[in-house]
Write a structure and sequence with these properties.
The structure holds 2 protein chains of 2 kinds. By secondary structure, chain A is an all-alpha fold. Chain A is built from 15 helices and 2 strands. Chain A has helices at about 1-15, 15-25, 30-55, 60-80, 85-105, 110-130, 135, 160-180, 180-195, 195-200, 205-230, 240-255, 260-275, 285-295, 300-315, and strands at about 150, 155. Chain A has a two-stranded antiparallel sheet. In chain A, helix 5 (about 85-105) runs antiparallel to helix 11 (about 205-230), helix 12 (about 240-255) crosses helix 13 (about 260-275) and helix 12 packs parallel to helix 15 (about 300-315). Chain A starts with a helix and ends in a 5-residue tail after the last helix. Chain B is α/β, with parallel strands linked by helices. Chain B contains 10 helices and 10 strands. Chain B has helices spanning about 40-50, 70-75, 95-105, 110-115, 120-140, 155-165, 185-200, 210-215, 235-240, 240-250, and strands spanning about 5-15, 15-25, 30-35, 55-60, 65, 80, 170-175, 205, 220-225, 230-235. In chain B, helix 7 links the parallel strand 7 (about 170-175) and strand 8. In chain B, helix 3 (about 95-105) packs across helix 5 (about 120-140) and helix 3 runs parallel beside helix 6. Chain B is globular and about 60 Å long. Classes of the chains: A mainly alpha, B alpha/beta.
Chain lengths: ~325, ~250
């Protein structure tokens, strides 16, 4: 029953380009574009939630790791003429290495200082991206980033990018699930909830914090590399602090520390601005109000609402 | 040779000497109590020997190995279990998961094996679940296995923390006030648990304020006052020691 629904759901997700073409013939490009962004944002939000929701550290360094992966892949592909199959892992690897180097001193800081320290790192990264014009082209942006080509497979059309995004999201979700359940999840949650007691359980708190931080950073770097290969242009404005704010809204809106919640949050957050396009001036106001309502009325986010809803449904006489 | 030993252990906080040159040794299979008035340095001593504090002077040895200044998670891994004075469980994990958390690092630490749930790790997990169930049963919490530990009563959480410390079958168990702030029935239950451990040949060092418990179950009592060891011996001898009486009741 569950397996059947899973297979049906997956098949539907894979068939989306044809479904959209049949239902909304004129809108296909636009809808697929939004879906590609949703998949990439969803992957990024999951990698961010590993750090915030499961390691339990409010890191604001995520735009820097996203940017490191994006710039590495973009510059290697344009200036170095590296193939995509080499530029992507290079972006992932560099983001992971930098996360490793940054994490060791950062995790010596307590909660608030950690947030400040990682924010500082994110700002420095953006300043470097903006001002090291000879290397990053600064505000002139890296342009003409080639479409991914792996062997004979060339990803250039919107449906192809959609499938790439979907595959990425599936892979990241699988990794997220593996890390946050069973023995690894238990170790992460033990460190998050009570570091002292975790050490008495022979769990090395620093090791698990670093593990979550480095994997989160590496995935963010990978998403950055995929993102630039889709968009074709990379500007320093992509790395601003507002990306951290967006990611925070997504995971809090959806439900921190939950796979389904974060995905729902990312989807809602990516789709919402498109819906609100008719009222561009009011967009930020509506975001703010929405976030306020969620934090006050539904601190578990949409995931909490879904869970409460389904448990009500299971009761014989309703609520 | 003693299983566990401190030599000249000293810890100072801003000029206050909380633990002052304490020599202490516990033989394998012994049940020893550490007592003393409030602020006499018992918990600081516990924290120094379990890696939570680095002593300023002195040595800590466990099984003949110098473990002075070794990190807490490493000392735990060597087979030193401990509980905390304030009830300490992982509130969002279920009761049984609390227990499983305490055994898994002793069974394997394979990141990849855990990520892909390798068959070997699954088998170890199944064995751990079985052990956790029997321990929960022995402390009377079998029926609460799947509820979040944070929803248990204070006394139940105390028993859960005790059972969790037993999960990896530690060679030395340090209990920080196991009978504090729980009701008389649970105190009896806790006493029975500690006695049972002793009968199985486990080595136990406990800090306790409840004199009935201390006098009833310990083989040997060590008394601290102002960070110094002032007396040591069988319970009935220590009880009458004038220095101990003075430390507790004043001159």
């Amino acid at each position: 029953m569950r397996a059947g629904r899973f297979i049906l759901g997956s098949a539907a997700l894979v068939a989306v380009p044809w479904i959209v073409a049949a239902l909304l013939p004129g809108q296909q490009r636009y809808v697929l574009h939004v879906l590609i962004f949703t998949a990439l944002y969803g992957s990024l939000a999951l990698s961010y939630d590993l750090v915030v929701g499961h390691v339990g550290s409010l890191s604001l360094a995520h735009p820097a790791f996203f940017g490191l992966g994006a710039y590495t892949a973009a510059l290697l592909a344009t200036e170095g003429h590296w193939p995509f199959a080499a530029a992507l892992p290079a972006g992932v690897g560099l983001a992971a290495l930098v996360a490793l180097a940054v994490g060791v001193p950062m995790f010596r800081l307590t909660e608030h200082s950690f947030a400040m320290g990682t924010l500082g790192f994110a700002i420095v990264t953006q300043v470097v991206a903006t001002n090291w014009v000879d290397f990053t082209h600064g505000p002139l942006c890296v342009t003409g980033i080639p479409k991914p080509q792996v062997g004979a497979l060339r990803i250039a059309t919107l449906p192809a990018f959609y499938w790439m995004g979907l595959a990425t999201l599936a892979l990241v979700a699988l990794l997220y699930r593996g890390l946050t359940t069973f023995r690894l999840g238990r170790a992460f949650h033990a460190v998050r909830d009570n570091e002292t007691l975790a050490a008495a359980a022979s769990i090395d708190p620093l090791k698990y914090r670093m593990l979550g931080f480095v994997i989160g950073g590496a995935v963010a770097g990978g998403v950055g590399a995929l993102y630039v290969s889709y968009v074709g242009v990379l500007c320093p404005g992509e790395l601003t602090v507002s990306l951290s704010v967006n990611l925070l809204v997504m995971i809090f809106l959806g439900g921190i520390g939950t796979l389904r919640g974060v995905l729902v949050g990312a989807a809602a957050f990516t789709a919402l601005p498109e819906v609100l396009r008719m009222a561009p001036n009011w967009r930020m106001v509506i975001y703010g109000l929405l976030l306020l309502v969620i934090v006050i009325r539904a601190p578990d986010g949409l995931e909490g609402l879904i869970r409460r809803g389904s448990s009500l449904g299971r009761r014989p006489w309703g609520a | 040779m003693a299983l566990f030993e401190t030599r000249g252990l000293t810890k100072r906080f801003l000029g206050v000497t909380a633990v002052d040159g304490v020599d202490l040794s516990v033989e394998a299979g012994e049940l020893v109590s550490l007592i003393g008035p409030n602020g006499s340095g018992k918990t600081t001593l516990f924290n120094c020997v379990t890696g939570y504090l680095v002593p300023d002077e002195g040595r800590v040895t466990f099984r003949g190995r110098d473990v002075t200044g070794v990190a807490a998670h490493r000392i735990a891994r060597l087979g030193v279990g401990r509980t905390f004075q304030l009830v300490s469980v992982f509130p969002r994990l279920s009761a049984i998961e609390n227990l499983l958390t305490f055994l898994q690092q002793h069974q394997e630490e394979s990141l990849v094996g855990r990520l892909v749930r390798a068959p070997r790790v699954r088998r170890l997990e199944a064995a751990a679940v079985e052990r956790a169930r029997s321990l929960l049963d022995s402390v009377g919490l079998a029926a609460r296995a799947d509820v979040p530990a944070g929803t248990l009563s204070y006394g139940q959480r105390k028993l859960l923390a005790f059972a969790a410390a037993l999960m990896p079958d530690p060679e030395l168990l340090l209990l920080d006030e196991p009978a504090a702030a729980i009701n008389p029935t649970m105190i009896e239950q806790m006493k029975a648990q500690i006695r049972a451990l002793h009968r199985e040949g486990k080595t136990v060092l406990l800090v306790e304020h409840n004199m009935d418990v201390v006098m009833d179950i310990s083989q040997r009592v060590i008394v601290l006052d102002h960070g110094q060891k002032i007396a040591e011996g069988p319970p009935e001898v220590v009880r009458r020691d004038p220095k101990v009486v003075e430390a507790y009741f004043g001159r």
